[in-house]
Design a protein that fits this description.
With about 475 residues, this protein is α/β, with parallel strands linked by helices. The chain has 15 helices and 20 strands. The chain is about 35% helix and about 20% strand. The radius of gyration is 23 Å and the shape is globular. It binds nicotinamide-adenine-dinucleotide. Nicotinamide-adenine-dinucleotide binds next to helix 7 and helix 8.
Amino acid sequence: MNVKANISSDTKVDYNGPYVMSIGGRLVGANQTFDVYNPATGEVIANAPEATREQVDEAIAAAKDAQPGWAALSWEERSAYLTAYADALDAHKEEIITLLTTEQGKPRHSMATVEVEYAIYWVREVAKRKLEDEVIEDTPEHIVKVAHTPLGVVGAITPWNFPILLGLWKVAPCLITGNTMVMKPSPYTPLGTLKFGEIAQKVLPAGVLNVISGGNAQGAWITEHKDVNKISFTGSTATGKKVMASSSGTLKRVTLELGGNDPAILMPDTDYKPLIPSLFDAAFGNSGQWCIAIKRLYVHDSIYDDFLKDFVAYASDKVVGNGMDPNTDLGPIQNKMQYGKLLDMFADVKANGYKIALGGEIDESLSGNFVPITIVDNPPRDSRIVREEPFGPILPLVRWTDLEDVIADANNTDFGLAASVWGPDRDKAIEVANRIEAGTVWVNEIHIHGIDIPFGGHKQSGMGVENGKEGLQEFTNTKTYMFKK
Ligand code: NAD
């Protein structure tokens, strides 16, 4: 079947707005709207619709109506639709990148481009994956098979740090497995998601992907709704707990991708100089607003002083500024709520007299939410800056001598999202990695993701996984069937 033939060639969308929701194939506004800000300037850039409860119900009803027909298509037909969607997104790539920088703040020439290109690639590649039935037993008399059937309607709720990537990470596996979706982006960054919803309406059958916008209440209306069969949530641990509690009313399936406080351990005698750019990007990329950012960097005593000096020198050359400026390395903090949390964390570092090797002072007179790259030199292991997830461009370097101590410290947290271990003795580093309690541990590399690589948190960093075969399976029920031959 040539799905392309069914698709309108007109995928034009207006990036100047108005920004509208996608409900049952229709583009709709709302009586109430809320302001969306550019975090680099503090200016209002657009208004987004504040969905009413009736509109959320309508979106869920539309997804429910569309689901049987969508599930009845062959896997190949759904794959062709998703490929066409990836093509349509690709045609609007440049506008989406600009919109992402304008509402989220990340640099257009680097992070924003990477996020949007990667997200489109994700849709295209997931479209090629298929969950096959598994044969568990096959004897001359009897056969047992396991199939993976769609769950129905999925509610997707996303945060503001990677709205396009994290949104499309949910859309592609949800749709390919035969489910339909109602998505709600963060109220801080709704615009890009509303636009990718609008583009979807030109390509996908009505009701398959619905996008609504609003605040936290709209999220709760989705999680408690009886006709939603699964929630795919990415956000903070605190909200994740509320989502799980609310989902329990109808025993919805939940996938929770939550917060982290990822440690990186530099082993003795690590040849660290070539690693500095990767370590810097892993800690400060997206201005530290990254669930899997390095948030605690444990450096062995044998290299601590030299590392600190060289790392600070490297970081000193980086430019914090408006993401539309090609010279900018790090953009602003995305919103005033997070900026306020960072003001509080910086005040705590100052009040406790921890040594600051770089940065340390936030200039509150600027109109944008700019926070300087800040490196804290060996604060106590029980300090807030080591124990909490700051979600900003501030990193503690912690000196260590005893391996058992550093492993215990790395694990001394309710989080367990990811970690990395770096060192010249690879086997030793792998041994340490095996003892870190986290969903992903990288050795001598970091932030490698892939369509076929499952990703998820241990402990209070989450439940379930995204990506990989396991990630696809989380959008399905396991159905066992058997018969006598
Ligand atoms: P948040 O939890 O405040 O909000 C996330 C989303 O949940 C938003 O869309 C929000 O409107 C919605 N929401 C809020 N209250 C709700 C409720 N009661 N019911 C339903 N929905 C509700 O998170 P945030 O501040 O947007 O994002 C930052 C957090 O996300 C950080 O902790 C970060 O580590 C985490 N994160 C995790 C991953 C991961 O993959 N593990 C990825 C990115 C971000």
